[in-house]
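Appendix B. One record, verbatim.
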Amino acid sequence: MPRALPRPSRFDVVVAVAGLLGGLLLWGIGLGMQRGHEPPVVWPGRWPILVPLAVMAGCELFRRIAPQSALLVATAAIAGDTLTQGNLSTVVMFTDVIYAAVLYGTPAAARRIPRVTALLSVAGAAVPYALWRVPEALLIGVAVGVVAFAPAATGLIVRTHRDAAEAARLRAEQTALLAEMDRVQAVTAERARMARELHDMVANHLSAIAIHSTAALSLDEPATTRQSLRVIRENSVAGLAEMRRLIGILRDGSGDTEPAATPTLDGLGALVDSARANGLDVGLDAGPDGDAPADVPAPVGLAAYRIVQESLTNALKHAGPGRVTVTLARRDGVLDVRVVSPCGDRGGPRAPGSGAGLVGMRERAGLLHGTLEAGPEDSADGKVWAVRATLPVTEGDSE
């Protein structure tokens, strides 16, 4: 079914009623634009004036909801008005219909109507002057320009400014939306970073505390209990210190934040010693000299350190009995990090895992455009769990 036109706006109704009442007032006092029987009056008398007036007032009702159709009917009405004694209100309403057709019509109509009215204005001056050869003939073109071209040009100017303002508003909204998206992404990225740091800083100590406290409660051996309590105390103190450093980072750098914020590969030895103190059999293979690779960019060193730290924490919680091997090697522009731990029943207390550690390791590798693989593998010593990270290291970064 065809869709019905919307109702005219209140302003359009007011304009139509005002134009009609004004025309009736002029008609009532007998004020016409031409004398009764002079050319080109075809329908002399007062009553024919009302027909174009009523039609033009009806066009005003549709000036906004159907501007092009209203202009076509209004053009026929103004042509009919020129064949009567004429009414000034009809002409004024016609100029408003042209203005509305440019302002509210389609973009093509908004470009076309000013051009057509300009040509009509030029033709209205040139043709009569060529025929009659009198200066007064030029006034016809002036009248066409005032009635048709001037309102069309005004409508085009207003529409151009309106479109520019609308485009500026849309750009401002888009800018605000992009800024909000950037803010949300920045907050999300910062939350993820702090979650990784919190997990990597504290999870190792809490896992050791959980395992050794379980051992102290389950084994009735004074020596084992004393050793477990010593490890629990050391990890509690270390974990508390790192938590304080992390709080300092969150409070805009208050406190000693550097050791907790930027660990390097030089600290791998201390990390492995800490894991041994927690009861893990760990071996570190970092090259021919036993040292960590040198000249590694800080982001790569931090990621490698955290990956090894989380892998040792997982080994402490889940690995079976046997030796855990940490291997670091730099070759072909990448840093290879590999942590291998035995699979199987550890025969002792376990600490629960959440899976956030593997997610954090993959995020760290992904931020550096590297890769991380973790899963069970077969080896000469049986089933093992291997974590391997490949972190790109460019020469430019290392300088």
